[in-house]
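Work package 3, deliverable 3.1, input record:
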Amino acid sequence: MINKVVNSVEEAIEGVADDMTFMLGGFGLCGIPENSIGALSQSGIKGLTCISNNAGVDDFGLGLLLQKRQIKKMISSYVGENAEFERQMLSGELEVELIPQGSLAERCRAGGAGIPAFFTPAGYGTEVAKGKEVREFNGKPHILESALTADFAFVKAWKGDTAGNLIFKGTARNFNPMMAMAGKITVAEVEELVPAGELDPAQIHTPGIFVQRIFQGKDYEKRIEQRTVRTRE
Amino acid sequence: MINKVVNSVEEAIEGVADDMTFMLGGFGLCGIPENSIGALSQSGIKGLTCISNNAGVDDFGLGLLLQKRQIKKMISSYVGENAEFERQMLSGELEVELIPQGSLAERCRAGGAGIPAFFTPAGYGTEVAKGKEVREFNGKPHILESALTADFAFVKAWKGDTAGNLIFKGTARNFNPMMAMAGKITVAEVEELVPAGELDPAQIHTPGIFVQRIFQGKDYEKRIEQRTVRTRE
Amino acid sequence: MALDKNGIAQRIAQELQNGFYVNLGIGIPTLVANYIPQGIDVEFQSENGVLGMGPFPFEGEEDSDLINAGKQTITTMAGAVFFDSATSFSMIRGQHVQLTVLGAMEVAQNGDIANWKIPGKMVKGMGGAMDLVASAENIIVAMMHTNKKGESKILKKCSLPLTGVGCVTKVVTNLSVLEVVDGSFKLLERAPGVSIEEIKSATEGDLIIEGEIPEMKL
Amino acid sequence: MALDKNGIAQRIAQELQNGFYVNLGIGIPTLVANYIPQGIDVEFQSENGVLGMGPFPFEGEEDSDLINAGKQTITTMAGAVFFDSATSFSMIRGQHVQLTVLGAMEVAQNGDIANWKIPGKMVKGMGGAMDLVASAENIIVAMMHTNKKGESKILKKCSLPLTGVGCVTKVVTNLSVLEVVDGSFKLLERAPGVSIEEIKSATEGDLIIEGEIPEMKL
């Protein structure tokens, strides 16, 4: 068994540097690598390009790196709910590239799977297609999209083992598995780290081969963005 | 919940016809849809194009359809261990298209995922690349491969529920999940059919949305092709 | 009388067919789930990674690891599945989802839709909308017929940046049900008590009005 | 004395580095797993869908749902994972597997490899070999230096249909260890007791022989 465990979040982010490209798992605030984001915020590195479906909220998630102006460019599909983000974007301090959510997911997977480019119908005829090759398949126009990779990918799982195998909970899976595939160095933080052999080999979502470093996270806030409930009758 | 259960293998294969294209899951004899193959053999339909990583052995798996000359064309990555196959191929009765295994898997996934074509390095510079577009990415030549779909996909799972959700066992997963995605009608046979709600939603390998019909299979032989063992010391 | 948001959702729910997998966008579309007709089994897909979405949780049972694409806490039904975003959009792009309902700022008579960007305003992003409209074969737009200034959102040509081209099949508004046919909006139904004249005056795009136009049955 | 198959496997095992994920082809490569050096942790990937492959099962413990790419019954180690074929080749194509060892019929001095087809004979197929050689950065070929007729398999140019172009990094044969460098085979090591002359006469491709060529240490 190849052991991927590192003993602290500081060790986990070793090697991060200014101007790098990062991928960060999560959808909204669900399944985001809270511990890694905290350490990146502490690290003070700057000029980052962050690939993440969303950009957090003002005081949580990627909002923490935005507050400190560590991010030069965001690549996302949806970036609402963040006033500081809006300010930086409108003032031109922050570069933003918006990508259809499905193309973002597939481009990350492609980056991890050694597929340099693929055709998708999403975005044809819109500004997303600008400068991209268009080709018809089965009578329908498609655009050529390229793979995405990152210097580091930061993902968050529910359980993980010492071999780097990951299991996600509920909808906290989202972008984490594809980003784990696409990181040159993938750092996984988990709510519960167990010895290799404890997880069922058939029930692993992200095989350890995609994970370079794994650590036991702590103090998870797991904030809820939209608390919607129904009343008991 | 959308109920996908059919009551027999005969009902499951309803609509199959001469000259159709089928996908069949399995790697070697591991994870093959034994019941469906049996019923297809009984059905007497002919002129089939079968997309399957392998072609079974003489008297089991796809060998049963080959024996009855029901297959016009095989699309596979490896077709050894089958004398009747060899005879039909060498005599020209059977058309054979060989595809690199990874490209076969990815082309099936692409077919199910609405990706009409993608670039891969596999096969560049070989006869597999003949007639295919070549393009360089990151200094490395790639070839353009297209998606595969099928009129019917036949897959075999370990457990399934009435909503069509599937769980595979061990290495019997192999091509089954991608082929389930790529079939216009996907027929899943399972060793154990349970009511929806009994399987953990986080532990399903193939979501029921990809499965149109599911049935409880029977009399599984699950033949072992290469019985390799070590002796106890 | 013009419909309210719930009325629009209720009318769209009549489009649900047995066995449909359905993706509901944020806003009015979400309300469709409250009006599933008797005897119709459908499953709701949320593109962040769940199939078989149920109602909101009871208070105190919210799970931060269980949300929909609108980031709202949800529950799941028996037979539900969780999956990653790539698999989710494989379902969408691969046309395994039979019906997509989403909101719009503008719809054009050639089926174009604009729903993600207003030049000069803060752009939040398209989320999964571009994938949904480019892929689905059956796209129903749920929206108000006119904007807050009273201007028609049912147009000859979209003025805003597009989300997708030639993709909308039906539009259900507070005033009418429209079908996109051969480059025009064919008026199928009127909201209860709404006259054809009212619809005409609220519609900038070309309308096809053939024969008796029935009122919606809600 | 020329090595036997086990000797070739044993020599290749010395190329294993700590933390390597390794794909072993059918035949001699499979034997490499028997010679993992002390203190080196590696995991074996089999392209049919398992990572963390273990030894063959004890008699009576064979599981028809647990095989390797050679269709042999296997076991798994702690930390093993099962996955589908698309994920498996994502690992391979995406260069997450650090070392591929496979057999060949011919290897050329430009790194080309032919191992799947002999014109006029029954063609069984390339299986996963084309994906493996096109993707991996570190490809070691394990084979006999000459064929049954005594003809060299280490060539200036492959005569058989190719499996991949310019991809082989090292060749370990019964006679030698060769590295593909700048369009030639650089002789790195001799099998114990095998002379440079023997290697020269068994090699059709261009050989680079610089300085003392050590014997392999097994």
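The two ends of chain C are 13 Å apart (CA to CA).
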